[in-house]
Structures are given as C-alpha cells and as structure tokens.
Write a structure and sequence with these properties.
six-stranded parallel sheet; Rossmann fold; 40% helix; alpha/beta; 3 domains; elongated
C-alpha cells in the first residue's frame, strides 16, 4: 500500500496524508482521524521519503532531462542545481534520451534510491498517448514530481511553464504588423511546448483572416544544433516558397535560417526577418543579434525549486503556474 492509496481511501490529498504522518497541526481533528483510521485498517507502514518531507530525508533531488547538451536543458539544469544548493539539497542527474523505456528505467531508479523528489526538465516527458504517461503517475504515488515547462494534470505532480502559445502568437502578430504576411514557421519537435508554439502561430494568422498554408509550416527532421543542415534544409525549399520572415521554434533553428539568408545573399532584416525562441546565448553571438522570445527560464527554475521546497516543508503549493514570455527585439527584425 502506498501513500497514494491512503489518500484515495481517506478521500484527502497526498499532501494531507503527509501532514498527518509528520504530525503537522495544519489538519483538522476529523480529517486526521479519517487518515489514521485508514492507516490502521490497512496496516500501512509509512515510507518517510514518500511522505514528501524531512524526517530522515536524504536531501537529494533527482533531475531528469532528455539531453544535457541541449542549451535550454543545460541552462535549466544549472539554474535548478544552484537553487537547490541554496536550500541544502544535492542532485542526481540522469540524461534519459527520448525512448520511453529508458525514461521509465531512470525514473524508477531514482524513486527506488529514495530521493525526496524528481524534477523532469522539458515537455518531451509527456506523451499524447495517456498510457505512456503511466510511469509519471506511478512515481507520483511515492514522491512529488515537478515538471519544468510541461503541463500534466495528476495528483502530486506540480508544473511550472511558459505560455508558449501566447508568446508565439505575439511574435507572429509583431511580424504581421510590419506588413509581412508570408511567414515561414520552422520547428523540429512535436513536444507539448513545440505544438503550443505552432498553435500560437496558426492562431495569429486565423485571427487576421489569413489562410493556413501547410507548406509554410515546415518540420525540420534533423538535429537543430546542426546549423548547416538547417540552412541546407531551407535551401531545398528555395524556389518553391516565397516568404519575408521566419519564426523558429528555438534559437538554433533561427541561426540556421540566418546562415541560409547569408548564403543566399539576403539582407537581414530588410529581405528576411527572423525570430527565434529561448533567448539563449546564441541570440547574442550573431550579427545582427537575434530577435527572440524570452521564455523566462530562470524564473521558471526558481519557481520550480520554490514549489518543491514548499511541498517538502508541508505547505500547500499550486499545482500549475503559467508565466508569460517576452519578445526581445533585436537586429533581425525591422
């Protein structure tokens, strides 16, 4: 029997069961007795780590990411680790890749190692097929699971994310306001975050009464860090599509678009405006500097750790908080 089962049978939240197990005064006598009755009836032996609090806590948090070499993930890991260290927690980092079986293996490993919680970095950990998210639900029965820039509704799962839909909608409107209606949208992921960005682009066009043309929504199947391949991909489209702007799902793709424009002899932004996303260091290491969406990564990391510490200290914390991104206007747009 798990803490999740106790909460279900008592008709209360996991956090409430945790408070009862840890002797918190922030529980009504009636609710406390209800939980204790279930514990006694089912002879439940509490696991202090599963209670999500500090009695004999290991003060260790597991961090899962798909690829630590990715700029977004690397920055997220650094900021999360710094925040955790300030709160006297250590970290175990697992780079899972993108296969579900590997993610299940690593998450189970961390749970079995009795970490106090796990943080999943990025929306690729959520699958469209709900059955494939069972590994997260199972882990959340034992420990709090926090998700950075992902949205998943589940007991004991806490999410902090940027409103990618709104951010990309605003970026697209910014280009449309310049009188440019032929806008190529370039992306290379089908994660929750990536699809929200694509939807923002589409909504901006629909709201202006403009047609949605599939040929202007191009999926790049390669590695977004291979900037030359991104440029070559756009070169292959040259002659079949005419566009005055590129909005890219991340800064890597946007820099690839800049390489394409330079090879073709296009002036940026006079002939081609370009917008990226993530406000990474790449956006300031090019000429002209890249207009990009700042998806408030540092703020998200701070929020995730603040939420986690609150949970481990037995406080009620919001299960989902959404932050607004900001368009940082630089030299690649007029």
């Amino acid at each position: 029997m798990t803490i999740y089962d106790v909460s279900e049978k008592a008709g209360v939240s996991i956090a409430t069961v945790s408070r009862v197990l840890n002797g918190s005064d922030n529980v009504s006598p009636q609710t406390r007795q209800k939980v204790l009755d279930v514990i006694e009836a089912y002879d439940y032996t509490p696991n202090v780590f599963a209670c999500g609090l500090g009695l004999n806590s290991m003060n260790t948090i597991g961090i899962l990411c798909a690829d630590a070499s990715d700029l977004y993930s690397a920055n997220a890991i650094y900021n999360i680790e710094q925040e955790l260290h300030k709160n006297n927690y250590t970290c175990i980092l697992c780079c899972t890749g993108y296969k579900l079986a590997d993610r299940q293996k690593y998450l189970n490993l961390l749970v079995n190692q009795k970490v106090d919680s796990v943080i999943l970095v990025g929306s690729t950990f959520i699958y469209d097929n709900e059955a494939e998210n069972e590994y997260i639900r199972e882990a959340a029965k034992e420990i709090p699971v926090l998700m950075l820039n992902a949205d998943y509704d589940c007991e004991n799962v806490y999410c902090g994310l940027c409103d990618d839909f709104k951010s990309t909608l605003q970026a697209t409107n910014f280009i449309l306001d310049k009188g440019i209606s032929d806008i190529l949208y370039l992306y290379n992921s089908k994660s929750y975050s990536a699809m929200r960005k694509l939807s923002g682009y589409q909504s901006a066009l629909v709201q202006r009464g403009l047609p949605l043309r599939m040929e202007y929504m191009q999926y790049f199947p390669g590695n977004h860090a291979d900037l030359t391949s991104v440029a070559d991909f756009l070169s292959e489209l040259d002659g079949t599509l005419r566009y005055g702007a590129v909005i890219a799902g991340d800064d890597n793709l946007a820099i690839g678009a800049m390489k394409f424009a330079q090879k073709k002899g296009l002036s940026i932004p006079r002939d081609l405006s370009i917008i990226g996303c993530n406000n990474s260091i790449l956006s300031r290491c090019c000429e002209p500097e890249l207009t990009t969406i700042d998806n408030c990564l540092e703020t998200l990391c701070h929020h995730i750790v603040k939420t986690l510490i609150g949970i481990l200290n037995n406080s009620e914390m919001p299960q989902k908080v959404i932050f607004s991104g900001e368009l940082i206007k630089r030299g690649t747009t007029l």
